[in-house]
Amino acid sequence: MPTDAKNDNEAVTPSTFQLRDLAERVIFYVGVPAVTLYPVGALFYCLQFMTHYGMDLTPSWHAVLVIPRELVLVETLSLLAGGMAGLFPFMIVYVGLSFFLFTMGLRHAWSAGWRAERGRRLLSLLALVAALSFAGYVTLDAVISIAFGSDWQPRAVGLYHLLLIFGVILAGYLIAKDRQSNRRSPNPAGAPLFVRRWFLRGALVAYVCAILGLFIVGTTIPLQLPKLQFGEDNPGEGGLLLADPSGACGYWQYIDEEGRVVAVPAKDVTDVVLERRTS
Q1: pLDDT per residue over 6-52, tens digit each?
Q2: Which strand (E) or helix (H) includes residue 204?
Q3: Which residue, among 197, 184, 180, has the nearest Cα to 23 in the 3D structure?
Q4: CB within 10 Å: which end of the chain, N or C, has fewer?
Q5: What is the C-alpha separation between 7 and 49, in angstroms, rounded?
């Protein structure tokens, strides 16, 4: 077979490329978070019950499975979105700095052209020193907290900061590396996945770091579950609400003071008080 005919057969047609392009975008930017969100949330709730409510593994999973799936998804999404929103400026600066350094390289960044523009070089140097100094301060503070923290909370925060520094540097490096491979590829449409989607690996690293950070910080701060209290017909009964009758087939399900998951038929109680915990 002639070489030209073989290359034509291996070439990706425009319609095939567009379909694959759309499928990849949907799978990785929508499908991955959608598929992983509930397992992440369920594991997070399980760790919460074991860490803050004195429950063993089996009752913890029982309690998780009682909670409506929609609530787990919304709570997990809000926690991840809130954490990402608070860290977004920090991540943009340090992912961009890491991307810039790995893309240009130190030798090219301080080449003759940059030395000729002293003002530009000075401003860049000051920005780089400030960014590296802040990163060094955060890293040192995290190491001290982990090594000399008196309890778990400062150690968890220190570990989270180390994870964050590592994550943003790795994300910037992967984005820069895959972008360079994409630009150098003679056929970007037929290149490997992470070369075609050069932003993807860095985004996945940031997503994984956000999830790990949620687990680390989540072990120090308990979820604020509503408190359920029955009225005069059932004095002294109640606990932390897991599910109401609308989502639990006609049962009030809650965690009692002994860490047990209890189900009470809604028809057996006439007075129910829900109180949002504040501590």
Answers
A1: 444 445 555 665 676 677 777 777 778 888 889 999 999 998 888 88
A2: helix 200-218
A3: 197
A4: C
A5: 59
